[in-house]
Amino acid sequence: MEGRLVFKFLHLTDVHLVEQGHALYGLDPAKRLALCIDSMLQEHADAALCVVTGDLAHVGHTDAYRQLAEQLGRLPMPVLPILGNHDNRANFRAHFPQVPVDANGFVQYEVAVGAYRGLFLDTNEPGVSHGVLCEQRAQWLAERLAQDDRPVLLFMHHPAFALGIPSMDRIALLDTAPFRRALQGHTHRIKHLFFGHVHRPIFGSWLGIPYSTMRGTNHQVALRLDDTPGIGGSHEPPQYSVVLLGEESITVHVHDFLDRSERFWLGE
Question: pTM here?
Answer without folding.
Answer: 0.96
